[in-house]
Write a structure and sequence with these properties.
The chain is of the alpha/beta class and 279 residues long. It contains 10 helices and 9 strands. The strands form 2 sheets. A 6-stranded mixed sheet has the order 1-2-3-4-6-9, with helices on both faces. Helix 4 crosses helix 5. It is globular, with a radius of gyration of 20 Å.
Length: 279
């Protein structure tokens, strides 16, 4: 993929406990590059390492969220270097999706405008997607001779169902904000000048009065259990979580603050380490 300019193509901004991750190539409709892939991963690493950040909102500058891969390389855009191994290198969109999936903080996508190709597939690991009325979603891979990537063959059917996922992906469909809402791809659709504020509001609601470690574990459990073979798998993981968390200082504070009718002040930090519930 075409390389970005030297200045940051992903920017991190703070709004209190909420981190805003800005895709920052508005002159190219925030088209995805190898440099953008690296910077998104770096920013999510920073957010996970900072206990004062409770949630992440990702959005795009300008009128688009992300127009997909930068096609500046022409017909060779998707010719990748295998390093002489003869094996397929990791898909960069997939590396971004997996990094978002592994986030220890809730992730809300503010889809401020068109999102096509990797621009839509990398939003799928977000916990909630808020779309503007100007948003549209392009599952255009087969129209470029490609296939869906960025782990979307796992995420998309789980979000919208297998029939809708196949209809959109095999047909290379452009999906309106209204259809995305109807099929469950996005949580709600708002005017374009409200999409970021609404996403921040939703993110704030997720972390107000909640224990950071419990939020991280709940996110981990919910996503992981989408691939579980049976409810017994969930039962085992949940039993471990209840056993470990039941003796924690967070639980003592949660119960005491409730009984004392005051706001909780949870002492435990995500950076102290999360228990392995799935091992």
């Amino acid at each position: 993929m075409a390389e970005a300019k030297s200045e940051p193509v992903v920017e991190l901004e703070r709004r209190g406990e909420i981190a805003l991750v800005w895709l920052n190539r508005p002159d190219r409709l925030n088209a995805f590059t190898s440099e953008m892939h690296r910077q998104i991963i770096d920013v999510f690493d920073q957010c996970d390492a900072d206990d004062s950040i409770r949630a992440v909102v990702i959005t795009g500058r300008g009128r688009a969220f992300c127009a997909g891969a930068d096609l500046g390389g022409g017909g060779d855009t998707f010719v990748l270097d295998d390093g002489g191994t003869g094996e397929a290198p990791p898909d960069e969109g997939g590396r971004v999706s997996l990094r978002i999936y592994r986030s220890t903080k809730p992730v809300v996508a503010a889809i401020n405008g068109p999102a096509a190709g990797v621009g839509v597939t990398m939003s799928l690991p977000a916990d909630i997607r808020i779309a503007s009325e100007t948003a549209k979603f392009g599952f255009v891979f087969v129209r470029r001779g490609l296939v869906p990537e960025a782990c979307s063959n796992w995420f998309l059917p789980r979000i919208v169902g297998i029939s809708t996922a196949l209809e959109w992906a095999m047909g290379g469909k452009m999906v309106s904000a209204a259809e995305a809402l109807e099929r469950g791809l996005v949580r709600e659709v708002v005017p374009v000048d409200q999409v970021l504020d609404r996403a921040i509001e939703v993110a704030t609601n997720l972390v107000t009065g909640t224990a950071p470690v419990s939020v991280a574990l709940t996110r981990q459990l919910m996503w992981a259990m989408l691939g579980a073979d049976s409810p017994e798998v969930a039962h085992r993981a949940e039993s471990t979580a209840i056993f470990v968390r039941g003796t924690s200082d967070d639980v003592r504070e949660g119960v005491n603050s409730f009984l004392e009718k005051r706001a909780p002040e949870f002492p435990m930090k995500v950076s102290d380490g999360l228990p392995d519930l799935l091992g």
